[in-house]
Amino acid sequence: MRPNRGLGFSSLAVIGAIALACIVAMAILAPWLAPYDPRLSAGPALLGPSGDHWLGTNDLGQDVLSEWLWAARASLLTAALVTIISTALAWLFGVAAGLSSRLDGAAMGVCDLLLALPAVPLCMLVLSIAGSGRRNVILLLALLSWPVFARVVRAQVRQLAHEPYVEAAQAMGAGRLHVAWRHILPGTLALLPAKLLTTVRFALFGEATLAFLGLGDPASKSWGTMLGWAFNDPLLFASQAWLWRVLPPAASIAIVVLAVTWIGTGLEQPHEHPAQLRRPSAAGRRNASRHQPARHAAQPGYGQRAPGTI
Amino acid sequence: MTRAVRYAGLLAGLVVLNFALPRALPGDPLDGSAAGGMSSATATLPAAAQAQLRAYYHLDQPILGQFTAYLSDLAHGNLGVSISRGTPVAQLIGERLPWTASLVLAAVVIAAVGGSLLGGLLAWKGGRLDRAAVSAAAAVAALPELLIGIGLALVFAVTLRWFPLQGGQASFPESGGVNAFALLADRLLHLALPGLTLTLAGLAAFLLLARGAVAQVRGAPYIRVARAKGLPETTIAMRHAAPNAALPLLSYSATRLAQAVGGATLGGAIVVERLYSIPGIGLLAFQSIQARDYPVLQAVFLLASLSILVVNLSADVLCQALERRRAA
């Protein structure tokens, strides 16, 4: 049963990785691949797919394929930047709160408040006042997505801080920053893949959802903006135009997220098995069960923004 | 005691945030030219009218005076007047609330009950069906309301034409007089797809969670004892397994309710209402973005955060009570 399942997951992971690589490559090469300027009208409005316009044109006569390629750039760049900022914040606050009891209360208080905020109404309020440029969207999404993992990292750090090797390093007179960097940080890196995958998913959906609600960057269209503009057109479903206006952006968001999810499942598999095989002893099992709370905290129902549902 | 302090702190934080956010952010609600180049409806007013508006919203006072005015307005239930509609915001919200509340509550209850039963049953039976269902649920759980909603709309409203695509009820009811039953049926028909979207978005997580909880309980010694006693399978499942597996599901129900209300996962009722044009609070908020109607957006934010707070608090209390009972 085990090897069979493992093979099933890993083949899905390979498919996911290939799909993701293709879309990322197309996004990077968009300026060279796009046949038309996505901002300019390239023909009559609502033209069906043809040799000149592979994905037809939209209601302004813009070439949908070029629009899609440039939108892939905007969507993926936003997702990548949000993920980097959010991960850095989660580790910064998580490690600081885990090591310093003075910072702990304040950091966890901020976490509590951020987790209690309704994300969409907050984004609506903030972005309609401050403007919905790409920088603001990225900062807001990053700010909303770090607290869950800051808590997980903090729990892991607190547990690591009492490990004998950390206490030994402290007893030998190692500085606090040295201990944090050399002894604590490496122990938390096992959480990194989960955080990256969760946040990529959150950022991609978040950006798409906000753009769909009219809170995208008007200067650079993303897949969500394409959807939002299409659904703003009252005549969208009066013709077949939705086939090439709605399906490409919606399907590509779904494909990227499924690909990321499959890669994540594939990554988790080898990570868990050796640990179980290597530590059959009673001490090992006790150790493993002590790791449980940290992993549980990342599962639906334990954190407010459950990874499975983001 | 500590919990009371924590929630009181959160409440205070939310109220202050709701006051401070519009004032701390760059951009002037009456000018709007800083907000990404999009000017609000009030930007073209003459200076005297702008000054009058400024005085009306207490924006000419020092920040402390603004805060006390805001608190007293809040205490009197005065949420301001919508800029684009000229109606009191509280009245607007009151009109729209039934739509959103019924949609969200129905979807969360169906998802919680259906998902838990399905997941529990799958884990109890096990086998190939179980594994297939888990893969499917994991795929659906990875998708947001936006994509699920678009998919359902394209299949069932656009292609098959089984359900209406937009609106909360038929715009032009049939001339022969509308009885209450026909109106209800019409509304249910209109709410079917948006409700299904919210249900599906929540169902998968409940299914996975219930499956995990039941799988954990299934091998427990007391289940083996019950089986050894020769109890019928349904009695073991309902009397021995279900109560012990229910606790995480209950606390997740609160999380899911909060998500569906406020879009904690960046989806929720707002996206679904905008997609299907259901005249609830979400659509109101969407229309207010385009009109830069700050009083409405502020009220929606406050309402959503307060409901999340209440939901979380009640779930906390309930779970603790149940846990204490179980421990006793």
Output the radius of gyration of chain B.
24 Å
Arithmetic mean pLDDT of chain B: 81
- The domain tally of chain B reads 2
CATH architecture of the largest domain in chain B: Orthogonal Bundle
Q: What structural class do helix, strand and pairing data of chain B support? A: mainly alpha
- Estimate the strand proportion of chain B: under 5%
Query: What's the total number of strands of chain B?
Result: 0
What fold name stands as the CATH topology of the largest domain in chain B? MetI-like fold
Chain-averaged pLDDT of chain A: 79
Topology order of chain B in helix (H) and strand (E) letters: HHHHHHHHHHHH
Question: What is the CATH homologous superfamily assignment of the largest domain in chain B?
Answer: MetI-like
Give a written overview of the molecule.
The complex is a heterodimer of chains A (310) and B (328). Chain A has 310 residues and is mainly α. Helices cover 72% and strands 0% of the residues of chain A. Chain A is built from 14 helices and no strands. Chain A is elongated, with a radius of gyration of 23 Å. Residues 1-8 and 271-310 of chain A have low confidence and may be disordered. With 328 residues, chain B is an all-alpha fold. Chain B has two domains: 3-75, no CATH class; 98-171 and 179-327, Orthogonal Bundle (MetI-like fold). Helices cover 74% and strands 0% of the residues of chain B. Chain B has helices spanning 2-24, 47-56, 63-75, 89-125, 128-141, 145-159, 180-218, 221-228, 233-262, 268-276, 281-291, 294-327. The longest helix of chain B is centred in the middle third of the chain and has 39 residues, at 180-218. Chain B is globular. Mean pLDDT of chain B is 81; it is low at 33-39. At the A-B interface, helix 4, helix 5, helix 10, helix 11 and helix 13 of A face helix 1, helix 5, helix 6, helix 7 and helix 9 of B.
